[in-house]
Design a protein that fits this description.
The complex is a heterodimer. Chain A is α+β, with helices and mostly antiparallel strands. Helix content of chain A is 24%, strand content 27%. A 3-stranded antiparallel beta sheet of chain A has the order 7-4-16, with no helix packed on it. The chains are: A alpha+beta, B alpha+beta. Chain A: One of its GO terms (biological process) is bacterial-type flagellum-dependent swarming motility.
Chain lengths: 245, 263
């Protein structure tokens, strides 16, 4: 068959994949702490005998945009957000260390401090945090967690633990299949990172950009289909020229 | 089938779930003792369409550095109850009580199950027993004789009544409160009541003014803690995000339509 048809088909197929990625960004436009994914196309030349005239399109996720999202003040003690390049650590379901910039935490009946998905938040030693029954829990700007014991008659706060705060190189961060961000390069040390409690980081999806992208991708798709149509017309024409009648 | 269509569908579902949570908050903006809820989301799993490091061509030197992982949308993971204290509304009704602290009043429903509430608009039923506004008996039971004229409820929960002929008020009973280690884990059962769950932990029954249970304020009610400004802002956000996701649905539909009409 005509090469043109296959090349146009690969273009349309990859544009549809890219549209799915863009749709995922938009669907998560209000997911707290979500980081939007980049998307790019690459030309894949077909090597071989003859003229190198064929270049298929290939869609790929070249990375994730780690720019901070807008901060939303909630006033809830256990909502925390880290500043600038800092991240705090939680334990992903597979046991590995995942990094988040913002967490809406709560305390389980057993006293474990967990994030909104129920995964444990880690302390500076990398182990889950447990807090005894408390009247009030507060988180200081250096990540120190202090609490007022439930049986306390005074107003003296007791220090419980410290959040694990790290400052990874953005280049080493990768989003996994479970949506968690992980550090791929070397061990990270506890860093001096400021945290703010009573606030959450919202999604960093740029909705205007995503909508513009969406329109662009739709039009690109139509162009590919048009090319497929043209290729069909060519084939029909040559068939009719060569027909025996 | 078209992935973008399904991903946008999860976005639409998420936002309508959020709008439902917001509208429930706004609907209860004037419900005594109501605690607002916040819809929480997470991104769904990602799919590996092309593994990073896969070979791009037959030439072994040419591998894909970044691959393609496609997200599959968004999921609502629940409504987190925010247990901040609502404003005090002074009613001067002698049977209205407000809990200033973390405690909950206990009540028994018609089947004898224990329910917990922050709504302290108490009333007296036909037998003279103290009941909640929905008619459930307060636990432990407090009976108020018919001839009692004035009822006083002290900050530590002692209910006393003035009987004619007596100079001293008679102690009629003691209000008790229950606290939970994780009130956000309580199950809302409607009518301003909560039920104990595994997540909330077991209730600790205690008198008011002990530990963190809080004190009783007679003649006042706790209004809902719904911040209407915040809810309206969230509503606008939910609506706009919904619109954007519906645009993706029509874009994906447009792509398929174009393909069907032209090939």
């Amino acid at each position: 068959m005509d090469r043109m048809l296959y090349i146009a088909m690969s273009g349309a197929k990859e544009v549809a994949l890219s549209q799915a990625n863009n749709a995922n960004n938009l669907a998560n436009a209000t997911t707290d702490g979500f980081k939007q994914d980049f998307n790019q196309f690459r030309a894949m030349h077909v090597e071989g005998p003859g003229w190198n005239s064929r270049a298929y399109a290939l869609d790929e996720r070249s990375g994730t945009d780690f720019t901070p999202g807008p901060i939303k003040v909630t006033g809830r003690d256990l909502d925390v957000v880290t500043k600038e390049n800092g991240f705090m650590a939680v334990q992903a379901p597979d046991g590995s260390e995942a990094l988040v910039r913002s967490a809406s935490m709560h305390v389980t009946p057993e006293g474990d401090l967990v994030d909104v998905r129920g995964d444990p938040v880690l302390n500076e030693g990398g182990s889950p945090i447990n807090i005894p029954p408390a009247k009030k829990i507060s988180i200081a700007s250096d990540g120190t967690i202090s609490f007022l014991p439930a049986d306390s008659q005074t107003n003296i706060m007791v220090t419980a633990d410290q959040l694990r705060l790290v400052e990874p190189d953005i280049k080493n961060l990768q989003k996994g299949l479970d949506g968690y961000i992980r550090n791929t390069g070397g061990n990270l040390d506890q860093a001096i990172v400021k945290v703010t409690s009573g606030a959450l980081e919202t999604s960093n999806v740029n909705t205007v950009e995503a909508l513009t992208n969406m329109i662009e991708l739709s039009r690109k798709y139509e162009m590919q289909v048009k090319m497929m149509n043209t290729s069909k017309a060519h084939a029909q024409k040559s068939d009719s020229l060569l027909s025996l009648s | 089938m078209e992935r973008a269509l399904y991903v946008a569908k999860t976005g639409l579902e998420g936002q309508s779930f959020r709008l439902a949570a917001i509208s429930n908050n706004i609907a209860n903006a004037n419900t005594y003792g109501f605690k607002s809820g916040r819809a929480e989301f997470e991104d769904l799993m990602y799919q590996n369409v092309r593994q990073p490091g896969a070979q791009a061509t037959q030439d072994e030197a040419n591998t894909l550095p970044s691959g393609l992982q496609l997200g599959t949308g968004v999921k609502a993971i629940g409504v987190q109850k925010i247990f901040t204290e609502g404003n005090a509304m002074i009613t001067n009704n002698q049977l209205d009580v407000m809990i200033q602290g973390k405690g909950f009043l206990r009540a028994l429903d018609q089947n004898g199950n224990i329910l917990y509430t922050r709504d302290g608009s108490l009333q007296v039923n036909q037998n003279g027993d103290l009941v909640t506004s929905s008619g459930y008996l307060i636990d432990p039971n407090i009976n108020i004789p018919q001839n009692v004229t004035e009822i006083t409820i002290s900050s530590d929960g002692q209910v006393a009544g003035q009987e004619p002929g007596n100079t001293q008020p008679t102690v009629l009973g003691q209000l008790e409160l229950s606290t939970f280690i994780n009130p956000a884990g309580l199950e809302s059962v409607g009518q301003n009541f909560y039920k104990e769950t595994l997540a909330s932990g077991t209730p600790q029954d205690k008198n008011p003014e002990t530990d963190e249970a809080g004190s009783i304020l007679q003649g006042a009610l706790e209004s809902s803690n719904v911040n209407t400004v915040e809810e309206l802002v969230s509503m606008i956000e939910a609506q706009r995000t919904y619109e954007m996701n519906s645009k993706v649905v029509s874009a994906a539909d447009g792509m398929m339509k174009y393909l069907n009409n032209n090939v």
